[in-house]
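Running low. Invent one:
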Amino acid sequence: MVAITPQLPEHSRALVAKHTLTFDLLSDSRNVVAAAFKLTFRVPDDLEALYRTFTIDLPAYNGDESWTLPLPARYVVDTAGQIRAADLNADYTRRPEPAEVVVALKAIANAS
């Protein structure tokens, strides 16, 4: 399993340590990978203003001034590089259950 984030590596390392993550957390500087998959959006002005009141400084965390974030997406890819399952929702609070990923992984394992 791999996760990709626009955060700078130093912020990701702190996140990995804080939550004792056991998978790779890769840095997508300037959302280059997310943009290639057409998963980026600019934070709306009103949300940017709200983030600033909470001292959430995306430019400092992400290393660029764009106020751009990726949509959360999840792909299950087999060893041949074929996407076997994909999930995307513009509402970042709606995420697939981990059990759904397990089902997709088991289907790949059973097919081989």
